[in-house]
Each structure stands twice: as C-alpha cells, then as structure tokens.
Design goal:
350 residues, alpha/beta, Rossmann fold, 7-stranded mixed sheet, globular, binds S-adenosylmethionine, methyltransferase, SAM-dependent_MTases_sf
Length: 350
Amino acid sequence: MNSDVQRTVILKAWPFLEETIKDMFSSSFPGCFNVADLGCSSGPNTLLVISKIIDTIHKLCHQANKKLPEFQVFLNDLPRNDFNSIFQSLPEFYKRIKKEKFGPCFVAGMPGSFYERLFPSRSINFIHSSYSVHWLSKVPENLENNKRNIYITKSSPPSVCQTFLEQFQRDFSAFLSLRSEEIVSGGPMFLTFLGRSIADPSSKDCCCLLELLTKSLIQLVNEGLVEEADVDSFNMPCYFPYEEEVKSIVREQDRCGQNVANSIRAVTEPMLASHFGNAVIDPLFARFATLVAEHLAVEKTKVVAEPMLASHFGNAVIDPLFARFAMLVAEHLAVEKTKHINLVISMTRK
Ligand SMILES: C[S@@+](CC[C@H](N)C(=O)[O-])C[C@H]1O[C@@H](n2cnc3c(N)ncnc32)[C@H](O)[C@@H]1O
C-alpha cells in the first residue's frame, strides 16, 4: 500500500538494471547465482526485483543457448522486519517460477543491518538495494544545536548539515567496503536511493515532507501537547545526498581498489505522476490526484516515522501530529508538485 513510489522508481530504473545484468552476462556466469536484496522490507515490491532479475537472466540464457542457473536469493532487512509475511508469500512466488520454467530458486531471509557484514566472503554474485541506503546507521551525534528541527532545514546551522553529511559519508563508505568483501570479483551492485539534485542540503527537493512534519510538531509545542525540548532532541536518521557527494565516496572506493562505478544517474519521479501517470496533467483529475497523493504522502511518512516518533514523544502524540501533518501536506500539494530525486548507481567489484 505504501510502496507505489518505490515500485514506479524500480520500474523506471529497470532499463539500467537490465543493462547491468547484460554486462555481467557477457563475462562469466555461475551455475548457482546468488542474489541479495538489501532493505527488502515486506511489501509488494519485495519479490518484484528478484522476479525481474530471474526473468532477464532466463531470457539471456535462452538467447545465448546457455544452461539456466539455479538461484539462491537472500532477502535482507533489519531483524524487526516482518519476514514471516514474506515467507508466507513464497509458495505463490515458487508456483510462478515453476510455471515460467525458470531455473530452481531458493529464497532465504538474512536479518541484520547492512552496516555490518551479512554474507561470507566472495559469495554473492549480484547485490541490489532500493529505497534503503538513505537510512543512516544511527542518528548523527552532536545535533544539540539543531533546535526546533528534526532534519536539515533552512534554519539549521552549517555544522548540522556537516554532521549529517559526515555520518552519511561514514555509513555509505562502510556499506560499500562491506559489500566489496561479500561480492565476487566482477559482480555488480545496483543501488537506488533518495537523494537531491541541488547542492544545498536544505533544498526543498529532498526535505519537504520532513519539514512539514517538523512544522506539525511545532504546532503541537505551541498548543502545549509536546515539550519543545523533546523536539530539540529528536532527529531523523536519514540523509538525502547530492550526486556529487555520492560520487566522491565512490571515487575513493575506486582508488582503494574495491568497487568501480559504471554509472550514477538521477531519476526524478513527480509524486503525483508516480500514482497516476499522465492522467494527472488532465485538470479534471488534478484535484482528485492531489487528494490521493496527499493521503499517500501522509500514510507513507507515518509508516516510516511513526515508530521513531512514538518512542520519543509517546503514542498519544501520533494522532494529533499526523492530523496536523495531513493538513500541511494538503496545503503544500495544492500549490506545489513535490518530486522525488532518486540516485541510481551501478557498480562493479574490481
Ligand atoms: C522504504 S523501505 C524499501 C523497501 C523496498 N526495498 C522497496 O524498494 O520498496 C526501506 C527498508 O530499508 C530497511 N533498512 C533501513 N536501514 C537498514 C539497515 N541498516 N539494514 C537493513 N535494512 C535497513 C528498512 O527496515 C525498510 O524495510
């Protein structure tokens, strides 16, 4: 229900992913193909990419008259992820694989943080991750001066922007180094995550929903429902990097002989079009689309942020907070179309 934007972006990035698989296919090819999806979650997208990867390899094998490989799929997420619901959807998935006459496929869960080692050395042939790597390993430290904010905004001091950036640099470098130990030589890694198209880290193209969430919290402070000190001490553990910030980390990896980037692209997805395609430009549907997008933006933010907000501010705050947030999102979407900037990176292990 809350995965439509991710799904649209996965499909938009698909031609690049297909390109990556074709490049890999032209070199060597194993009898058992180990794929890992990092930050798989437990929604309708969880098996979507895996199905598409298997589908593409199947077609390429047919074209080249090669024997189909067996597939071992590792679905990774944090231990609290609902792996049971994924496992319950597997019989249906296996049925389809059998019907399409794909090679045998074995799916396993791999709970753990992708900021730690997850797999044995040189054991994975292909690593995929979508909409996950913008989550940091933790809330950055020393953000006491980010008063009345929960992420970077125009009023955040420059030191706050630097603190978030440095945490992302540490985390993303660690993520790439850890994966370079796990992936086979020549193995590709394909990552899609939220970023920004403007160097300024407080630019609207990445922070707008979090800014509206902050405004909602401040309204609750003004109404006496939330302590100002609690807002001051809360920050979101995420970062939406600028393309150049990612490139410089990737260049460093290349220098250390670990991973080399084949391509880094930015894919933009207007929030409304991701649900309605071109119909949204039809003025007849515009208001309707706004109402639904508004609902989805609120629900999506709620799904992701509610556990963190509830543990910091208490459960009682959730309903009034999201009621105010819904109003602010509605006002925002009435005057502006929000876009998601996605960075799509294809890399190869040296
Ligand atoms: C928005 S969901 C993306 C789901 C799916 N990949 C998609 O594209 O629809 C982000 C997922 O990343 C997971 N995640 C965040 N930090 C993680 C970490 N350090 N290790 C593993 N998974 C993590 C979250 O638990 C969540 O399920």
